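Sequence in, structure out.
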Amino acid sequence: MGRDIGGETLVLILSGRDIESVLTMKETIAVVEEAFKEFAVGAAAMPTRAGLLVSDRNGWMGAMPAYLPGSMSLATKIVTSYENNPTKHGLPTVAATIVLNDPETGRPMAFMEGTRITAMRTGAASGVATKYLARQDACVVGIFGAGVQARTQLEAINEVRHVQSAMVYDVVPGKGRTFAQEMSHKLGINVGSEDSIERIVRESDVIVTASTSKTPIFDGNLVMKGTHINAVGSFRSDSRELDDSTVSRSKLVVDSLEAALEEAGDITIPLKSGTIQRDHIYAELGQVVAGFKRGREDEDEITVFKSVGLGIQDAATARLVYRKALEAAVGMQVELA
């Protein structure tokens, strides 16, 4: 698979169901952590995401190539985000496709449904951040948003901390209850739907914002000392999930400084207003993983991981999926002339 035979290339096609059958969160966290380390030491090649607005359809498209020599992964993700999809078309907001290439020859090895990989690698990045930034005794998780991404966020946090309970809030009636029932069964922990934003903020050791909100979800003055926050929902410079208070009170870690300064409204908006200065951004996650910067340094710190999503995460996860799919003999081979 992915080999040249008689001048033609065999390419592996993997559906979302194929990917789900072979990909585990534990393994995804491991490869994503290693990818961040490669990025921190300067081994990875990854340009800033190229994006364009499809403004008349309330949509966005991005292209995300990356190369990780350590894991021999060369991949490009094409991702779209259409905010009207759930209400107008009954479709998920995000759709993605990943092409995995042979770094030795450049020839394509696999085409993959990328939405599942996006959800898993984003959850895994928060898992890595939680591992280094949350208190060791963190056991209560509060989640804003009850979509696909919220599920992998909770799954990843549960891999790196002993989660005892979780609360979820969603603006869509009934969506939180469905999430709570599903994740309670899947993870074997107590997950409940909660209508009080204040309660979630005050009682959670780890908070996840995985929403489509363009304005801050909660009052940062309510955030308790020692809380860790994974902010993953917003990836545009004109929208944010966190307010000035949350950001200014926190030790702020980003996935990529360059990407955050271009795409993360949670950071660019308070920077423009003068609420924070650029040196308030403490580190990139890879610097913490590689040991160049310390993670959590005391029990009272409020820590924030702001993620906009990086191509290295997709590349690392896609290579893992490809290897696991070959081992499990899943997917379909096609010939490309």
